[in-house]
Specification:
This protein is an alpha+beta fold and 209 residues long. The chain has 2 domains: 82 residues, Nucleic acid-binding proteins (OB fold (Dihydrolipoamide Acetyltransferase, E2P)), CATH 2.40.50.140; 90 residues, OB fold (Dihydrolipoamide Acetyltransferase, E2P). It is built from 4 helices and 10 strands. The longest helix is centred in the first third of the chain and has 21 residues. The protein is elongated, with a radius of gyration of 27 Å. 20% of the residues are buried.
């Protein structure tokens, strides 16, 4: 009796799995539930079978762990990127259903705007500042500080928050040019007391007279 029950349950499970696989097609969007997280991705139950969202397909930006984007038991919509029925492997995409950061970069970060970001990478020629996940801009070494610096590290460090001014945006080339120096210059200008401006005006008027 025990053996018969196990056999029946195994047949039912196999039948459900076969039915689930028959509903899956590459390219479709399907609803699922996050079951398990690993360092390399998230396993999602999509109607009785599990698929994997690799960590690179969770977010347009860089993340260190899937828990930064999804949690166990969270319901999600995912896109089926590939199917391997023989090996019973399903590759899923989550970021593919999210807005691409560059699609509206020009509207969100217009030229002249001052925005908040975080320094995420430093090179010999400048610092890359993350404005949002998947959207980084470059602060050239000449724009990193009020005074000339020999190394970018003399002005900024990785992980440091940064207020930057948008100099230009090129969505096609996926390039944003930023400036820390111009923000500092404007802040310094705004910090000058009004009395000093009045004094300068008086001196100019006296000179003209």
């Amino acid at each position: 009796m025990v053996a018969s029950r196990k056999a029946v349950m195994a047949e039912e499970s196999a039948a459900k799995k076969k039915e689930a696989w028959e509903k899956l097609e590459e390219g479709i969007v399907i609803h699922g539930i996050v079951r398990r997280l690993t360092d390399f991705g998230a396993f999602v139950d999509v109607g009785g079978v599990d698929g994997l969202i690799h960590i690179t397909d969770l977010s347009w930006g860089r993340i260190k762990h899937p828990s930064e984007v999804v949690k166990p038991n969270q319901e999600v919509d995912v896109k089926i990127l590939s199917l391997d029925k023989e090996r019973e492997r399903i590759q899923l995409g989550y970021k593919q259903l999210q807005p691409r950061p560059w699609d509206n970069a020009t509207e969100k970060y217009p030229e002249g705007a001052i925005v908040e970001g975080k320094v995420v990478r430093i090179t010999e020629f400048g610092a890359f500042v993350e404005l949002e996940p998947g959207l980084d801009g470059l602060v050239h070494i000449s724009q990193c500080a009020l005074n000339r610096v020999a190394k970018v590290e003399d002005a900024v460090q990785v992980g440091q928050p940064a207020r930057v001014k948008v100099l230009s945006v090129d969505p096609e080339k996926k390039r944003i040019s930023l400036s820390i120096r111009q923000v500092l210059e404007e802040e310094a200008f705004d910090a000058i007391p009004e009395a000093e401006f009045e004094l300068v005006t008086e001196v100019e008027e006296t000179t003209e007279a």
